[in-house]
Amino acid sequence: MTHTASWPTGQRPGCFKSSPKTHSQSVLVSRSVSGVLFFLVQDTRTTAVMQRAFFSRGALLAHQAAASLDSPLAARSAPLLQRLDRSMSSVTIPPPACMLRPLEVPLRYLFGPGPSNVPPRILAAGSRPIIGHLHPEMYEIMNDIKRGIQYVFQTENNMTLAMSGSGHAAMECAVFNMVEPGESVLIAINGIWGERVAEIAERIGANVHRLVKSPGGYFTNKEIEQAVEKHKPVLFFLTHGESSAGLCHPVDGIGDICRKHNCLFLVDTVASLGAAPIFMDKQNIDILYSGSQKALNAPPGTAPISFNDRACHKMFNRKTKPVSYLFDMAHLSNYWGCDGKPAREYHHTGPVSGFFTLRESLAILAEKGLEESWKKHKEVSAYLYRGLEDLGLKLFIPERDLRLPSVTTIAIPAGYNWRELLTYIMKHHHMEMTGGLGPSIGMVMRIGLMGYNCEKTNADMALHALADALKSCKKSKP
């Protein structure tokens, strides 16, 4: 299929200088079998010149090729060329039919625990032209990201950057760099994320101690200090926003306990950053990390992380190298310009488009203001709570102050199959809500209204979908 488009004189794209005279000018756009668009600029004055140059160059190359066939080198390489030709024509697996169809992505209301829907401004940032990951302009964008993370973390730490990967990448980076084989670590487990950190620490040979509560449970400072005194860990881990249970854990005073006992304090804010207050410096948090795809509203794939001076001293005075080269902060600190060296050296190719979107998401949060973001998440979640209670549903976390504003957990209503409810909502409302995760599977359903999705109109949509599902799905039990 061929389409023709025209531009006024002097405004058409291309590298040819426009003429004030009138000429036949058009752009023919044709689609090749591979789906790539080719643009051919036609100009009656330039076409003849281009053709002459093309055929002259072609004649010269043909003459050179013919002459080379008579050379001794050509005779020796002929068998090789024949084998190469045969190898290039020996494809036995055809192109998959699915790859010859256009990409299709359905519209979904992502009202689960993440990722959340991404606003147009951030999507537009991800469509910007790619630049080199070591270009000066890229370094400037990375510097912007660093300052944006310092703002949302409320820290002045120089060792602040974004991992190339999901929140799990930051999780592993923290453990890999902080802990050596045989060292004691203490992990607070009240959902899936403590379980993950414990497994990561065990895989590198740490002596792991678990402080365990059922999903939704929280730890008193007294319980934490008693465990720290008993196990004498080099690192204590706590999840601030436990999305599998919908809990926002209190943090005040825990950093002081860790400093008193010469222990580093590591906190996960993947589900809470931007939705609930966190103050890295004031709360004496030594290592803090998050993810891009929750309340920050960027696509998945980048993960903010920060280390204070206490953490850096432990990290850069290790007896052994970290088990991961990719996550080794000795290299990443240089890549992000955090080590004070005048030049940044190649370490890995960062996700350029991912950094564009993360930078834009941090910019939006800075423009809105952290306190305003926290306030809005609190207001919308409270509005959702009232609506859920009006439907006769029970909130999983009874204490209002301990509920995670970004992810609300509902106790599965008696007599219903939670999978049927969620399947109905997806099918009839194109809306994602999810069940539990890890130890909370079969205990809760989860609704996430965070960042761009944090609006009362979206809460109304979620409540309407739930009401419809409760009315339409049959109870499996009395």
The tally of strands reads 17
Mean pLDDT across the residues is 87
The CATH C-level class name of the largest domain: Alpha Beta
Please bin the fraction of helical residues: 25-40%
> What's the shape?
globular
Note down, in words, how this protein is organized:
- InterPro entries: Aminotrans_V_dom (IPR000192), Aminotrans_V_PyrdxlP_BS (IPR020578), PyrdxlP-dep_Trfase (IPR015424), PyrdxlP-dep_Trfase_major (IPR015421), PyrdxlP-dep_Trfase_small (IPR015422).
- There is one protein chain.
- The protein is α/β, with parallel strands linked by helices and 478 residues long.
- The chain folds into two domains: 120-368, 3-Layer(aba) Sandwich (Aspartate Aminotransferase, domain 2), CATH 3.40.640; 370-472, Alpha-Beta Complex (Aspartate Aminotransferase, domain 1), CATH 3.90.1150.10.
- The protein contains 14 helices and 17 strands.
- The protein has helices spanning 44-69, 72-88, 120-126, 136-153, 167-178, 192-203, 221-231, 254-260, 309-315, 329-335, 352-368, 370-390, 418-429, 456-472; strands at residues 2-5, 25-31, 37-43, 109-110, 159-164, 184-189, 207-212, 235-239, 241-242, 247-248, 264-268, 287-289, 302-307, 407-411, 431-432, 434-435, 444-448.
- Strands 5-13-12-11-8-6-7 form a seven-stranded mixed beta sheet, sandwiched between helices. A three-stranded antiparallel beta sheet has the order 1-2-3. Strands 14-17-16 form a three-stranded antiparallel beta sheet, covered by helices on one side.
- The protein starts with a strand and ends in a 6-residue tail after the last helix.
- The model is unreliable at 1-51 (pLDDT under 50).
